[in-house]
Write a sequence for this structure.
């Protein structure tokens, strides 16, 4: 698990944001039945804030006097936390604001972060109200870890921040199409998956990424100090992406080996990949040091995926994609990597279904599926070719079109217990 940073003081003052419409529309009932007494007994002084509409929470945390709160806790699905994180990073004092400990209680239909926090605690998988009670206890323990955030550039929207996932293709379509089944709770994704399987299609586009290196812990140093010695190229890199049939596709990832030769070439590439102002002109939040503007060619040390026909692209930075989908089994909240998955076109419906069924236990990587590719990256760029489609960030629809993303290690704080 991630490194514990601190512990919430007692008594602890929490703002508890509840979306009464999330999931089956029972978040307030769940709060009354399971959380209120638990928090009172644990000495958590909490103020209930019931959200009234979309972006209410975002506006609220943007203006809030944060010195009044030891933590901000979200009881909803992942969508409400996405608002809160973006609201915090839109503040002029974002650097301080984003260090406010954040907590999550599953009240929605997409409770991926809650399931991830429960998973990080080492407990065996549970769902629905058991997951809520577990997350409640973890909040009462009040241990705080760091959480990575990923900054995402779209072609014309302002930069946004993501704590969970970026999806295109099958997963994004299922996520959005299944909103109409919200009344069945977390099962909405199972229903949506079956419906989408019936009309399985191919998504065309170009995908590229900056591989994560083994010593990505030291990347901050690498970034700030151009003279950092870059020794043996082989030992400083992670193994090639996990391909289920490595022999067939390893040649596709040749550019991977070009990323680190010597001090000199490192310097050259650094200047090549120094972002121009247009890539970082967002008014607040940390600058993106790995990205060049979307309309410029990729830096030389990026890997371009050879395939252009996909069934899905999924970038994850937490373990769970949904309560019962362990998409990135070895992810922790602050590993500083984006777990990139893609499924190449040509996969059969049965094989894709098998992948999702295996994902319930995080066993999809062991299914020997030749169409699934998994690799760890620090930044990525996606350029879909078709004029229309769906891209989701943390389960929310964003502007469709070319995008790029970069991970910011440990930028936020998460109560993991
Ligand atoms: P779910 O997992 O059920 O989708 P989310 O937390 O993702 O739950 O919330 C879904 C959306 O509902 C979010 O985009 C959020 O902004 C919005 N929202 C928040 N409060 C309300 C409200 N009172 N009425 C309607 N929508 C709301
Ligand atoms: Mg949602």
């Amino acid at each position: 698990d991630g490194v514990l940073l601190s512990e919430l003081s007692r008594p602890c003052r929490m703002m508890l944001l509840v979306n009464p419409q999330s999931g089956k529309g029972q978040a307030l009932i769940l709060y009354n039945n399971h959380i209120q007494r638990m928090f009172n007994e644990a000495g958590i002084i909490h103020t209930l804030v019931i959200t009234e509409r979309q972006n209410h929470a975002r506006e609220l945390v943007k203006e809030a006097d944060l010195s009044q709160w030891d933590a901000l806790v979200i009881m909803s699905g992942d969508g409400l936390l996405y608002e809160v994180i973006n609201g915090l990073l839109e503040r002029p004092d974002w650097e301080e604001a984003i260090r406010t400990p954040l907590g999550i209680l599953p009240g929605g239909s997409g409770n991926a972060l809650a399931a991830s926090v429960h998973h990080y605690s080492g407990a065996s998988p549970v769902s629905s109200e058991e997951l809520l009670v577990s997350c409640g206890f973890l909040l009462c323990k009040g241990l705080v870890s760091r959480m990575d955030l990923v900054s995402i550039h779209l072609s014309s929207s302002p930069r946004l921040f993501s704590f969970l996932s970026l999806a295109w293709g099958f997963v994004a379509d299922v996520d959005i199409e299944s909103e109409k089944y919200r009344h069945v709770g977390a099962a909405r994704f199972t229903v949506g998956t079956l419906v989408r399987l019936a009309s399985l299609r191919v998504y065309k586009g170009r995908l590229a990424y900056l591989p994560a290196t083994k010593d990505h812990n030291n990347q901050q140093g690498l970034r700030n100090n151009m003279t950092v010695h870059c020794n043996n190229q082989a030992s400083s890199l992670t193994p090639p992406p996990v391909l289920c049939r490595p022999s067939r596709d390893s040649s596709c990832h040749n550019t991977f080996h070009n990323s680190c030769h010597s001090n000199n070439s490192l310097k050259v590439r650094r200047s090549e990949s120094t972002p121009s102002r247009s890539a970082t002109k967002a008014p607040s939040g940390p600058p993106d040091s790995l990205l060049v503007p979307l309309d410029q060619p990729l830096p030389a040390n990026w890997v371009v995926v050879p395939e252009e026909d996909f069934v899905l692209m999924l970038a994850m930075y937490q373990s769970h994609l949904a309560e019962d989908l362990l998409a990135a089994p070895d992810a922790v909240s602050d590993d500083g990597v984006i777990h990139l998955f893609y499924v190449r076109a040509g996969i059969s419906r049965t094989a894709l279904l098998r992948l999702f069924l295996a994902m319930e236990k995080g066993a999809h990587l062991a299914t020997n599926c030749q169409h699934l590719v998994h690799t760890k990256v620090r930044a990525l760029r996606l350029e879909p070719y078709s004029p229309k489609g769906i891209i989701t960030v943390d389960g929310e629809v964003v502007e469709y079109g070319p995008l790029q993303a970069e991970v910011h290690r440990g930028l936020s704080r998460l109560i993991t217990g």
User: Anything to note?
Assistant: The two ends are 11 Å apart (CA to CA). Residues 19-23, 51-54, 56, 76-80, 83, 108-110, 182, 396 surround adenosine-5'-diphosphate (ligand 1) (CB under 6 Å). The CA atoms of residues 11 and 301 lie 50 Å apart.
